[in-house]
Design goal:
Blueprint lengths: L1 E6 L5 E7 L2 E8 L5 H15 L9 E7 L3 H18 L2 E6 H6 L8 E7 L4 E9 L3 E11 H8 L5 E4 L1 H5 L1 H8 L3 E2 L10 H13 L18 H11 L8
Parallel strand pairs: 1-4, 4-5, 6-9, 9-10
Antiparallel strand pairs: 1-2, 2-3, 6-7, 7-8
Helix pairs in contact: 1-2
Length: 239
């Protein structure tokens, strides 16, 4: 079985192809270009380098959130279009779950943290226990709330771009109990999305592309502006 996975939930855009347990290839670009400019180029290049086409893929997967509202929409729309065109199934994978998967079989609690700006983060907590288990559901909270919730843990692995942004604060509050991995595992990786999707697809846990949608914890700016506009627009009965 071949899985093509995409993650555009953060500043990095990443795409990977797996065949059963083997990672065939993975591209990651963390650059100023927007995801809409680069993700299809990356997918096309990776498939070309692997001498594959979209028709050779059995399942398409996307990191569906939480994360950047615009980034999530681009990634989900791309995967849905590919699945629709090739008549294939899809798998939705949580962004924070995929980040935690970057640390396979870690002995400590893993807390993926994604920067949501203005001192806010998206965070959850996981532990490896006969597979990756969620012990704290994804939330949109302040970094202070996140660190406070971790204060009762023993050693904790912090991962994700939010962990990098708030590293000094986390370290000042938790001291040596806070562990920060180095290198590529800090960032989103499509290979982790693909590995999770592969496990689910083999259990028959796929869905139609029509069912895939971004997972937003907080309302997007566009939704907030629309609600604000609606509150200030007189109803027809008042005009």
């Amino acid at each position: 079985m071949r899985v093509l996975a995409v993650d555009t939930s953060s500043n990095a855009a990443t795409v990977a192809v797996m065949e059963d347990e083997l990672l065939l290839g993975e591209y990651t670009v963390n650059h100023k270009k927007t995801h809409s400019q680069k993700i299809m180029v990356m997918i096309s290049q990776l498939l070309s380098d692997l001498e594959l086409t979209a028709d050779d893929i059995d399942v398409f997967a996307a990191a569906v959130g939480p994360g950047s509202f615009t980034g999530l929409r681009i990634g989900v729309a791309t995967v849905k279009a590919l699945a629709h065109a090739s008549d294939k199934a899809v798998v939705s994978v949580g962004t924070l779950e995929a980040l935690a998967y970057n640390m396979p079989y870690a002995e400590h609690i893993i807390v993926p943290v994604m920067d949501a700006r203005r001192n806010n983060v998206f965070a959850a907590s996981y532990i490896w226990d006969d597979g990756l288990k969620e012990i704290g559901e994804p939330e949109g909270i302040t970094i202070e709330e996140c660190v406070g919730a971790c204060s009762n843990f023993l050693d904790t692995i912090f991962i994700g771009d939010g962990a990098a942004v708030h590293r000094d604060y986390i370290k000042s509050e938790l001291g040596d109990k806070a562990i920060f991995p180095s290198g590529a595992v800090l960032n989103s990786r499509a290979s982790s999305v693909a590995a999770i999707a592969m496990e689910r697809a083999k259990r028959g846990e796929t869905e139609s592309y029509l069912e895939m949608k971004p997972y937003y914890i907080k309302k997007s700016q566009a939704e907030k502006e629309l609600e604000e506009k609606s509150r200030h627009t007189p109803s027809q009965s008042q005009t």
